[in-house]
Amino acid sequence: MILVTGGAGFIGANFVLDWLRANDEPVLDLDKLTYAGNPENLAALQGDPRHIFVQGDIGDRGLVGKLLSEHRPRAIVNFAAESHVDRSIHGPEDFIQTNVVGTFHLLDEARAYWVSLPEEEKAAFRFLHVSTDEVYGSLGPTDAPFTEQTPFAPNSPYSASKASSDHLVRAYHHTYGLPVLTTNCSNNYGPYQFPEKLIPLIVLNAVQGKPLPIYGDGMNVRDWLYVGDHCTAIRAALEKGRPGETYNIGGWNEMPNIEIVKTVCALLDEMRPDPAGPYARLITYVTDRPGHDRRYAIDASKIDRELGWRPAETFETGIRKTVRWYLDNMAWVEHVASGAYRNWVETNYSERVQA
Ligand code: NAD
Ligand code: TDX
């Protein structure tokens, strides 16, 4: 068994679904079900005995300790976090509580559990911490991409909270010998992403005929990776990564935001033509995000060289699948946008959720 935290969120849900498609090793899924946690993402697993869902907080030491001693997982994969940069600007508190304090409590309970294991299980145990390229700060137009040696320089409350957690994870290896791995990944896109993030927001607003907001001049650059590729990279790190190491994960696909939005609009024009005209007419430049990082780029050659991982999707194939998925799952998008998924949680999931 493995313990996955944040498994009802965007990447966590994709990971759990992929994991149980690929093998039968059970998943214990600990998720607080914040606004971003949506068990509807895991509806395909309802009644599946390989998936045990527990609603709870990674910062709840009593609960985490009890789950570890009762279920005895061989690994923990920590996705749980507050993840949206704009929310961190408006209200950093939850980011500090979950990303810093919560990760610390989870780590410390993991250490107590790990020291109690017999030698063989102790050697095989892994704590994999899922993190972001944003910890490295912002690049100029001609700077080389981030490597695992790039010093941390986080600029938003979100990235500062993730950098803090990365440091704690590193310290638990260095000081206590806990077999940790950290992955720092670029921007993900794909099914089940909460429509506060750029790509699903653009699809949702476009089909509703609403403005497509572009922050600043639209020339901020991100590296984009299809979520399924992130999941295979995490699996590779979990199975083959060297304890104490960090691995950068990226799509070798840097693009300015305006290009992303125009690409999504062109796919929508093809797949769901709007009689009112091309979707790009809805593009609207708005006030910039405070402290908006200009450019992220990831050098993902270490994970390729050492673990044999590279992305399977190109941006062209991944974004086409993604736009198709949102159009085919508008009920999911509308449930999330309207908050109706909360009712779904109450009516469909309550009997499986333990506080
Ligand atoms: P998300 O916001 O979609 O999901 C986060 C999940 O964590 C939700 O299900 C939420 O309910 C749960 N959660 C939040 N606080 C919790 C707590 N205290 N205890 C238990 N569960 C809690 O996020 P995501 O985009 O899926 O990101 C997952 C992880 O990957 C995060 O750690 C994020 O920093 C990292 N990451 C994300 C991206 C990206 O592009 N989305 C890129 C690199 C790294
Ligand atoms: O409406 C928008 N208009 C816009 O121009 C939104 C929501 C975003 N943007 C810009 C800001 C960014 O430059 O698009 C880019 C992507 O924005 P987000 O989707 O909010 O992602 P970002 O801030 O880059 O962070 C994401 O990738 C790294 C995730 O939210 C993080 O969790 C992850 O660590």
Any overview of this molecule?
There is one protein chain. With 355 residues, this protein is α/β, with parallel strands linked by helices. The chain has a domain at 2-188 and 224-252 and 296-313 and 340-352: 3-Layer(aba) Sandwich (Rossmann fold). The protein has helices spanning 10-22, 61-71, 85-90, 93-115, 119-124, 157-176, 198-207, 227-240, 257-271, 301-307, 315-328, 330-338, 341-349; strands spanning 2-5, 27-31, 51-55, 75-78, 126-132, 180-185, 187-189, 212-215, 221-226, 246-249, 254-256, 283-286. The strands form 3 sheets. A 7-stranded parallel β-sheet has the order 3-2-1-4-5-6-10, sandwiched between helices. Mean pLDDT is 95; it is low at 348-355. The structure holds nicotinamide-adenine-dinucleotide and thymidine-5'-diphospho-beta-D-xylose (TDX). Nicotinamide-adenine-dinucleotide binds next to helix 1, strand 2, helix 4, strand 5 and strand 7.
